[in-house]
């Protein structure tokens, strides 16, 4: 140990170089994790708060119904089952159905979401997203539509739109409703297609007085997709309590865009990590190898004086371990510090209206945030140390294999 | 020792010495080469994949969905409803212009939004009215038909296999389209004659019907666009300006000649985005490769202090010595680059033939027009990009060791080495 430290201090330039070779990859990874965490968490929150909830209970779908969801006429027994279990933060009944919204000679296929306004108020941020008019009140006959749809249909607050309900189980039902509010959607596809009405209005459109399509549920304490376990713990309790003809669908099925994004993120991060670590490891290998070559005579002497080969190998590996641990810790700390600074400044805004439109299409906010997860930081740093020490094994092995006499005779 | 004189002679000698020096330490040299090779491999492959993604997107969109160019009414893009489209009168004029414009093919389209209903479900669709024969000369959607056939006339509908599965529609079954026309909601029954399975999520929600049916449903006698295919190898921008000129000469106003970037406004920003993402990666790789090379070169100089001192005492000039050290780095970078480059191009070639699937992910981004299977690209430019990065870092990295070698004092060097 002492020998290792002393040797590291003897060659400051080289030590710093090796340090950097470990520090930079770790720093990059921590920053990338920070960015992607925040993006994933944003997408998750947007999807689960405004639309899907953490899970939904729906009638089992027996054949392809397109955008339609089978009607459930007995939502009361589902609610009763939910009352019996723990861990539920919030739930509401909703009736979603495809419809054709039209005004004048314009039309657009939409999803009407029939909601209970006072129930969704505390959870859904859609009320805060209303930019013109107001959100729905209980029992009000009206529709809240997205800015994109308002532009497509060329309507404003107070104008009438015609909804042609097209639920396959009930046949066509037409309804004329006034636009009471216009919201600014976080995702453009949502703004173009999702219309909120009260549950009563939607039931009239479905021509069925007690129909619903889903009970939407949020689980307490869930902050992001990493809390899947908590959601599963709650849905597991439901087994046996629910009627036979319903099923539980969690957000991964309901918001495939979020789980799809996460699914692609993992391999991408692994590839990036492999590239960074690969380069870092090559530099560590290179530096240590040189330092072993340089010390051939010295190491030969140490072996000649009776140090075992394991001892020599251990010495080199300690040297490598020491330097990579310091480098990795520094890299991680710099990454974390940067994330703190970014968050303290309120995120990095991305420039340009065009970019903002683009981000809206994929459902991201035009401000970059960083969200540090300690397990990821620790794993990045530890993996780098592991890879670097592995890389150090070759020079260490060479050092241990030196023949004392020849090594001492070795001329640089 | 040869005598160091004459420029040509000196150059050849420095090359020979540098080359020989390198192979005195095989392992060390191989290590340096590995670092450079790895760096150039990564740059090449990343570049090829990023660029391939953009190219796949452009090519697929043009070939299956958009066509090379489209003529649209000014203002249609911002508010895409049929009544903002080309009027019947404009269409007549445009067709005359196109007849003389030597385009490969053109196809009239009338698009509107509506809803498709089967016996079991319903889903929102973009209704695209087309001339079945002309459309097949502009886009290749017919090549992706997995069941049944293309439409041949009124009363028939072609939809994606995905939509068919989602609505449980079998071939030959009747479906209903609902759309808003000028005189209220119109509904019309169609027979599903075929299903296609293209590489583009955008197309999954498109229903192709005949132009006559689209006219009847939308109540619009004009078109929303005319898609144009250019002769192979033609310059798109040249055609854009030519058509603009022709239209102006024929006195037809209010028509926009839209190329790919106008038709797919997100394409440009995606290209910019992917370039911006490359920059930190390239810098990082350059830094690491530079470290590796500089470090090794530096120690190889230190190690040979005595040797260099001796060479200088024997009359080798500082300049030549610096050049030898520099040449060593250049050799290493060149070999590393060739190795990494060849392997990198091999990988790209494989990926450009076989492609890689993005699976379900891109269904989400279908609005951006990214195909679900991407192919890497193998443009010769990546050589240049990777090469300049590698050579630049190698030279910068070798500069300090070379300077150090050339600033040695022969006597001290021999004594200390």
Low-confidence stretches of chain A: none
Count of runs of 4 or more consecutive helical residues of chain A: 16
Helical stretch count of chain B?
15
Query: Percent of residues of chain A in helical segments?
Result: 55-70%
State the share of residues found in helices of chain B, binned by percent. 55-70%
- Beta fraction of the residues of chain A? 15-25%
Shape, principal axes of CA atoms of chain B: elongated
Q: Report the C-alpha radius of gyration of chain B, rounded.
A: 32 Å
What is the average of the pLDDT values of chain B?
82
Distance between the termini of chain A: 26 Å
Cα-atom radius of gyration of chain A: 31 Å
Textual characterization of the structure:
The complex is a heterodimer of chains A (about 400) and B (about 425). Chain A has helices at about 1-10, 10-50, 75-85, 115-120, 125-130, 145-155, 190-195, 200-205, 230-235, 250-255, 255-295, 295-305, 310-345, 355-360, 375-400, 405-410; strands at about 55-60, 90-105, 105-115, 130-135, 145, 160-165, 170-185, 195-200, 215-220, 245-250, 350, 365-370. The radius of gyration of chain A is 31 Å and the shape is elongated. Chain A is about 55% helix and about 20% strand. The longest helix of chain A is centred in the first third of the chain and has 41 residues, at about 10-50. Chain A starts with a helix and ends with a helix. Chain A has about 400 residues and is of the alpha+beta class. Chain A has 2 domains: about 1-45 and about 260-410, no CATH class; about 55-220, no CATH class. In chain A, α1 (about 1-10) crosses α13 (about 310-345), α2 (about 10-50) runs antiparallel to α11 and α2 (about 10-50) packs across α13 (about 310-345). In chain A, β6 and β7 (about 170-185) form a beta hairpin. In chain B, about 55% of the residues lie in helices and about 20% in strands. In chain B, α2 packs antiparallel against α14 (about 380-405). Chain B has helices at about 5-20, 25-65, 90-100, 130-140, 160-165, 200-205, 210-220, 235-250, 260-265, 265-305, 305-315, 320-355, 360-365, 380-405, 410-415; strands at about 70-75, 105-115, 120-130, 145-150, 155-160, 175-180, 185-195, 205-210, 225-230, 255-260, 355, 375. Chain B has about 425 residues and is an alpha+beta fold. Chain B has a 6-stranded mixed beta barrel. Chain B has a two-stranded antiparallel sheet with strand order 11-12. The two termini of chain B are about 20 Å apart. Chain B is elongated. Chain B has 2 domains: about 5-60 and about 265-415, no CATH class; about 70-260, no CATH class.
